[in-house]
């Protein structure tokens, strides 16, 4: 019998009628727990069903699907129904136990992800994308859970791989298992997309970002770029309301809010990492970046960080060593330089008002160093003479000194976020002072790490080759003044094979018209 608050009984005449016999049916397992206990039809509203909230009850969320069918022709309502996620406060309470019904290996991988991977991926920053959101969602979504299992396995194999020769066999076996788990994750993601389409778009985007992280970790940058390109394209279509209006994720929905406030900024950060590498990949990054004609004052480090991400992703050319040859681009460079100045001004104002420990924190230091590096490269791209970098010797020295302190305070071996490896790379690439240059290379070698697309040992290997090419035949180098313009490398072209730790490089010296012979470097 329906409860009174649903209007199941309407006056005395209803009581006089004989009770109808209900037809046999299978109870739905998709409704929230409260509606199932009350034996009423749940409306499956998100994030909490209206049947509960309209009567003052607390909706406890929905059960996770136990299986995703890979047969697109199967009439399985569980794969077609929008599965709602409980509210975040309920999910946070679930995190400590992570009580998954999984086999021992999957449970071990999830545990490793929660206690190691999620912490390391954020690098020097505090990000609840990995430590909170991903773990929340993977409890409810099979495709996310499978990606997390694969990432945990691959990350653990990465630790074994860097733990000495005795761990290499274990690392290889674990890496193969991770690849198999990842293949299953891709299969589940495809099933999710086939079943949901533009609905549950937040899950699709989150899985795509996990794919980028997996491919970066195993060194397949081409595959990572493919996933990142897809994420950008999907975000762009959705943001421009080109997605199908029916059964889609609306901008005003809880999932839409999650995309706008969490996933889109995270995707912007991934774009920045990809564009910071001096290799010839192109990304339609402009499709998701907000136009920042004026930079507003910051109220938090997080706001300053997102503003810097957007600015840097716009400022960095496809290769950071490129020169602006088209004078029509001079105005754009000037606009970016103006925004860099605005950002620095507002960031300084914010740091002056925040607690001292926050102002001197690692995230604040790294943001200032990235801003400095971007300003140097942006200024230099207007000049075709490599000696322009000699003017920034004080800045290069400061970057190395502050980076050394950051490295001494971190034991992270792999992160997805911006870090110090590209900063040291560009110091050693463009600063020809022998002491500062060699110190930057030494730091990359002595503190081996991977930061998104950057491998410190691979970067050091390339830099040592460039150092030898530039200083060959010059005798004793005492300062940057001893390295003349014709000896300096102005362009480098690279083809990387990170999985086998191999890179093919060719160089072009300033004033030269032909490239050097290709050389294969290994580490």
From TrEMBL:
An MF annotation (GO) of this entry: DNA-binding transcription factor activity, RNA polymerase II-specific
UniProtKB keywords: DNA-binding, Metal-binding, Nucleus, Transcription, Transcription regulation, Zinc
The keyword Isomerase is annotated on this UniProt entry: no
InterPro entries, per database record: Transcr_Regulatory_Proteins, Zn2-C6_fun-type_DNA-bd_sf, Zn2Cys6_DnaBD
Residue span of region Disordered: 1-23
Residues annotated as domain Zn(2)-C6 fungal-type: 31-59
SUPFAM superfamilies: Zn2/Cys6 DNA-binding domain (SSF57701)
SMART domains according to UniProt: GAL4
Keyword Amino-acid biosynthesis: no
PANTHER family referenced in this protein's UniProt entry, alphabetically: ASPERCRYPTIN BIOSYNTHESIS CLUSTER-SPECIFIC TRANSCRIPTION REGULATOR ATNN-RELATED
Listed name of the protein: Zn(2)-C6 fungal-type domain-containing protein
Native species: Dactylonectria estremocensis
